[in-house]
Design goal:
InterPro entries: Apc4-like_WD40_dom, Coronin, DUF1899, WD40/YVTN_repeat-like_dom_sf, WD40_repeat_CS, WD40_repeat_dom_sf, WD40_rpt. The chain is mainly beta. The chain contains five helices and 34 strands. It is globular and about 105 Å long. The chain starts with 5 loop residues before the first helix and ends in a 5-residue tail after the last helix.
Length: 534
């Protein structure tokens, strides 16, 4: 090793003194200073400074290495350089006549085949659009138009991509079937009608692991769970007083359902019993909406709200102890509500603002400090709503880890999130096994106490979606009730990818028979409810 001259030694002693002072105030300053002096002194790559006693005087000892590391100053992460790339204009969906109804919903949802938005039309209408239909929206595009009031929210069935639920101002929830390739004519007849709410239905969300279980919230201040295959309500939750419910979220296995409310209380329910198991008052002190999201299979969840001074913030919580948040991060001063989206495969939390064009992303961890800021995407075009599509819909070989659908005032803009990599090979470190879109249990099994984890699949091209966590598609052993027999048949047919518009003679007869059976079952139910035997 080349010896250090006396002049170099004196200079380095001064650098050490300055760095010791500056590290208490501006750590980054000392780092820059050391590298500047390194350039002037032309020393070998510097890794570590440390003190030692040399001939009775405290001086600086240089330890050299052929590698230079910054791990002491910057946290290492595979996602430090993640970036958002907006789609080109020719890949966007423009001239969309969006409905004017407002509320707590995100206004857009998507799966791997379609996205859905509410459209201006008589009564309530919704467009379910295949991704191939890019460009200007066709004014004559076939719609779902079976509600008597505005459609306020909707959600795709996570296990059957041709099934979508809609919630409306007319107090009902309806289940619709989408033919392969999309609608060819306006659809007014739902597969299932779910009635029971006393006021408009504001939010709906499917269960993440149990087949055909749906949660809904309403201005009647209740949360209800439904078995859509039987067309029946299974659980009712009424602990919100007369306060509007602002958001709801399922836990990783679906055993817990969380709600946020206008009274500033976060409630965690045992979803099967409908009982509150834990709650936190004044989770956020601001008066605006609070949104909530569980962080995958971590034992934590996040809420996004406002301070008393209307500053936006998010907090990380342990559901087992809600006395105090694990982490609080103040974001900025803005009026728009933030929509949280969590990717459990990358541990990245995306915070998307309504009314602004910014997306902030954080890497979440199970221990301190729980949230690491990564970067921010800025846009001058404000967002009305946002959706995250399943990982199966991303371009894996281009290292697209997330795809968001940004809804503006009259357009839908796909946003692609990439992790830059030089190799064209499959990157297994950023693409672990992911949510497969296969139920791990039936509705009856879940209600009976089963608590299965989501079924996972490999994203490797050669694996072709092979199941990797021993998850098995649960099958029901019980027969459908007489009330739901017609409903079950229709839902099952669309779940298998069938089409309602089967124009063959046999298909028409089957459709007519199913409709007649459903109507008969409905009438029999009404007779029983009124005590009339037949």
């Amino acid at each position: 090793m080349k010896p250090i001259s006396k002049d170099q030694r004196r200079v380095l002693d001064k650098v050490q003194q300055i760095s010791e002072l500056s590290c208490y105030f501006v750590p980054a300053f000392s780092t820059v200073l050391l590298f500047v002096w390194y350039g002037f002194l032309k020393l070998p790559p510097l890794c570590i400074f440390k003190k030692r006693s040399c001939e009775g005087n405290k001086s600086l000892d240089l330890i050299y290495s052929t590698k230079t590391t910054m791990s002491h100053f910057v946290r290492q992460s595979k996602f430090r350089h993640v970036y958002v790339e907006p789609a080109k204009l020719e890949s966007c969906y423009t001239n969309v006549r969006l409905a004017t109804a407002t509320g707590e919903q995100n206004y857009i949802k998507g799966n791997t085949k379609f996205f859905a938005v509410s459209i201006q039309a008589g009564g309530g209408a919704m467009a379910v659009v295949p991704y191939e239909k890019v460009g200007k929206f066709d004014p004559d595009f076939p719609l779902i138009s079976g509600h008597r009031g505005a459609i306020l929210d909707f959600d795709f069935n996570p296990f059957h991509e041709h099934l979508i639920a809609s919630a409306s101002d007319d107090t009902t929830v309806k289940i619709w079937g989408i033919p392969e390739g999309g609608l060819t004519e306006t659809c007014v007849d739902p597969l299932v009608d779910l009635t029971g709410h006393g006021r408009k239905v504001t939010l709906i969300k499917f269960h993440p692991t149990a087949n055909n279980v749906l949660a809904s919230t309403s201005s009647d201040f209740s949360v209800r769970l439904w078995d859509i295959e039987k067309g029946a309500q299974t659980v009712k939750m009424e602990d919100h007083g007369e306060n509007l419910i602002q958001d709801l979220a399922w836990s990783w296995t679906g055993g817990v359902l969380a709600t946020t409310c206008k009274d500033k209380v976060v409630r965690l329910y045992d979803a099967r019993s409908g009982q509150v198991v834990s709650e936190k008052e004044n989770a956020h002190m601001g008066t605006k909406s609070v949104k909530i999201s569980f962080l995958g299979n971590k034992e934590t969840f996040v809420t996004v709200g406002f301070t008393r001074q209307s500053q936006r913030q998010f907090k990380v919580w342990d559901p087992r102890n809600l006395d105090k948040e694990l982490k609080k991060v103040d974001i900025d001063q803005a009026a728009g509500v933030i929509m949280p989206f969590y990717d459990p495969d990358t541990n990245l939390l995306y915070l998307c603002g309504k009314g602004d064009g910014n997306i902030r992303y954080y890497e979440m961890s199970e221990g301190e400090p729980f949230a690491f800021p990564i970067s921010e995407y800025r846009s001058t075009t404000s967002a009305k709503g946002m959706a995250m599509i399943p990982k199966r819909g991303c371009d894996i070989m281009k290292c697209e880890t997330t795809r968001l659908l940004k809804l503006t005032s009259n357009a839908i803009e796909p946003l692609h999130v990439f992790v830059p990599r030089k190799s064209d090979a499959f990157q297994d470190d950023i693409f672990p096994d992911t949510y497969a879109g296969i139920p791990s249990m039936t509705a009856d099994e879940w209600l009976g106490g089963a608590d299965n984890s989501p079924v996972l699949m490999s994203l490797r091209p050669e694996m072709q979606g092979k199941i990797t966590n021993n998850g098995k598609r649960a099958r029901s052993t019980s027969k459908p009730s007489s009330v739901g027999s017609g409903i079950a048949a229709r839902v099952a047919r669309f779940a298998r990818g069938g089409s309602k518009n089967d124009n063959t003679p046999e298909g028409k007869l089957k459709s007519e028979l199913e409709t007649a059976n459903a109507r008969i079952a409905q009438l029999e139910k009404l007779l029983r409810e009124h005590g009339i035997s037949h």
